[in-house]
């Protein structure tokens, strides 16, 4: 600082920046970090390599390292990584006994740590201590039976050692816990690797349905096996449709066609009507479709149990079997859940069906659409008219009558004539169908009478109904009946307006 004559200090003036515009070359934080990395400003030199020349130096080195590991463990015993590093270091020095001691101490701290058990067992397997490894796996699956990784590694070790019986025993212990699907498939694949098809079939049976002994009573020696099973509580393990299909395909793949068909039939019976699934019927139909000559001379009995009633269908031809399966499923599966089923049915009829079969498929699809429409709005009489025209052209009389009865059951909620105009034509068409198609005069007469009883004549009536009923009686040469109808019409309030006014 400069000094004045009076001895006071003078602060120098700060130079003012005239140009405050940003510099042309800007430096970013990323650039600073990159330059520091390139120049290796923060890298520390590696520690010098220590050469151990005698046993005393080696013992000192071990003591120093062990003291460091023990200090880290003493600071925080719950950090399992410190225990694992310590044990792995001892393992690298071939100090297996010390490494075991460290793992055991770590298990006392946290016996539910999965990584700790895995590292411990892997160390024993690396050092070829098979019995020690078995002991560790047994302890692990006893303490943590729901950890599938332990079971997988245990069975793999036994199989690699060639101990097939021991591996099967481990699998059996595992299956008692009813594990996930992949575990059952691993057991099945294990048996198939050793050509044990019968044992694999038994596992599939347990996989889908298993009888637990928890609910069993004490069974006498002379009691039948069937009664014994009836006394057991039925425990469902994995009863999904896909598992039944896998079981059936397993039988088919090994050439047991009859067994495969039986599995499909059991699956249909098991799920019934409440839990029916389209995938099951699609797989069943495809299975029957692929049999061809191998099963063309056989008769399949298709048995299902619904509400304590057994339905048995027998059909000798393979294509007829497929057709019946598709129709059976379409009649029972809700329409919005049967899209894939209907698609496969259409493809089947196009490949193997005749013209009549293809028309049946198209009619069935249109019936599904109309069913959805009338279910969404029962008072949509136009949809009922279209539906009735469809069933009249294709279905039998009982089916047509059933649809007519469903249609006329939807009475208009308001007693106003404009709401009843379309509805009355359902009755007219019903009566004409009974008279012209089925040629049943008695049922036609009943339809007309039921319609006239339903119409609220005190508020309004329809002259067309009265006239059609009278003309019907004239065609039946029942003049007294026609006169009675016209007499009843005269008793209707304002009948002259009815005859002269709009119908």
Would you kindly provide a written description of the structure presented here, covering whatever features stand out?
Belongs to the crooked-neck family. This is Crooked neck-like protein 1. It comes from Xenotaenia resolanae. Residues 68-209, 368-488 form the Pre-mRNA-splicing factor Syf1-like N-terminal HAT-repeats domain. The chain has 503 residues and is mainly alpha-helical. Helices cover 64% and strands 5% of the residues. The chain is built from 24 helices and six strands. Strand 1 (2-3) and strand 2 form a beta hairpin. Helix 3 (80-92) runs antiparallel to helix 4 (96-109) and helix 12 (241-253) runs antiparallel to helix 13 (257-271). The longest helix has 22 residues, at 355-376.
Helix and strand string, N-terminal first? EEHHHHHHHHHHEHEHHHEEHHHHHHHHHH
Number of strands: 6
Number of contiguous helices? 24
Helix content: 55-70%
- Record the strand order, biggest sheet: 1-2
Our Rg estimate from Cα atoms comes to: 43 Å
Distance between the termini: 120 Å
Main sheet: strands, sense, barrel: 2 strands, antiparallel
Average pLDDT confidence is: 77
Runs in which pLDDT lies below 50 for 5 or more consecutive residues are 211-236, 293-316, 498-503
Q: Please identify the structural class as seen in this structure.
A: mainly alpha
Q: State the shape.
A: elongated
Strand content: 5-15%
Task: Set down the secondary structure blueprint.
Blueprint: E1 2-3, E2 9-10, H1 29-39, H2 55-75, H3 80-92, H4 96-109, H5 114-126, H6 130-143, H7 148-160, H8 164-175, H9 181-193, H10 197-208, E3 209-212, H11 225-230, E4 233-236, H12 241-253, H13 257-271, H14 278-291, E5 300-306, E6 309-315, H15 318-330, H16 339-352, H17 355-376, H18 381-394, H19 397-408, H20 417-436, H21 441-454, H22 463-475, H23 479-490, H24 495-500
Antiparallel strand pairs: 1-2, 3-4, 5-6
């Amino acid at each position: 600082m400069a000094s004045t004559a009076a001895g006071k200090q003078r602060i120098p003036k700060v130079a003012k920046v005239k140009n405050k515009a940003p510099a042309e070359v800007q430096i970013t934080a990323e650039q600073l970090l990159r330059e520091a990395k390139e120049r290796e400003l923060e890298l520390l030199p590696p520690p010098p390599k220590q050469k151990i020349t005698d046993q005393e130096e080696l013992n000192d080195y071990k003591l120093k390292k062990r003291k460091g590991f023990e200090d880290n463990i003493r600071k925080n015993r719950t950090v399992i990584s410190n225990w694992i590093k310590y044990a792995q270091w001892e393992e690298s020095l071939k100090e297996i006994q010390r490494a075991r001691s460290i793992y055991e101490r770590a298990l006392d701290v946290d016996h539910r740590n999965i990584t700790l058990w895995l590292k411990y067992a892997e160390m024993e397997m690396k050092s070829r201590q098979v019995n020690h490894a078995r002991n560790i796996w047994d302890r692990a699956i006893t303490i943590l039976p729901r950890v599938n990784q332990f079971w997988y590694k245990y069975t793999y070790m036994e199989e690699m050692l060639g101990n097939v019986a021991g591996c099967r025993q481990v699998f059996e212990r595992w299956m008692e816990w009813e594990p996930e699907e992949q575990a059952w498939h691993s057991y099945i694949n294990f048996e198939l690797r050793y050509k044990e098809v019968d044992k694999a079939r038994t596992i599939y049976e347990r996989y889908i349905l298993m009888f637990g002994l928890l609910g069993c009573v004490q069974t006498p020696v002379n009691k039948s096996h069937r009664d014994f099973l009836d006394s057991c509580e039925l425990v469902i393990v994995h009863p999904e449709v896909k598992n039944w299909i896998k079981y059936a395909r397993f039988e088919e793949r090994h050439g047991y066609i009859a067994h495969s068909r039986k599995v499909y039939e059991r699956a249909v019976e098991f799920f019934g009507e409440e839990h029916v699934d389209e995938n099951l019927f699609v797989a069943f139909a495809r299975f029957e479709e692929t049999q061809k000559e191998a099963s063309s001379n056989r008769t399949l009995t298709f048995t299902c149990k619904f509400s304590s009633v057994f339905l048995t269908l027998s059909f000798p031809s393979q294509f007829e079997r497929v057709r019946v399966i598709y129709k059976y499923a379409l009649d029972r599966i809700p329409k919005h859940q049967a899209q894939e089923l209907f698609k496969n049915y259409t493809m089947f009829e196009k490949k193997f069906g005749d013209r009549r079969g293809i028309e049946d498929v198209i009619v069935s699809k249109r019936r599904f659409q109309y069913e959805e429409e009338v279910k969404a709005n029962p008072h949509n009489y136009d949809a009922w008219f279209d539906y009735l025209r469809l069933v009249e052209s294709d279905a039998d009389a009982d089916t047509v009558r059933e649809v007519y009865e469903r249609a006329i059951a939807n009475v208009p909620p308001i007693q106003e004539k404009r709401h009843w105009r379309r509805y009355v034509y359902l009755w007219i068409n019903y009566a004409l169908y009974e008279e012209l198609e089925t040629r049943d005069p008695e049922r036609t007469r009943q339809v007309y009478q039921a319609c006239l009883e339903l119409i609220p004549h005190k508020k309004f009536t329809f002259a067309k109904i009265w006239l059609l009923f009278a003309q019907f009686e004239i065609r039946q040469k029942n003049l007294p009946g026609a006169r009675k109808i016209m007499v009843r019409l005269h008793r209707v309030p304002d009948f002259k307006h009815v005859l002269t006014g709009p119908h």
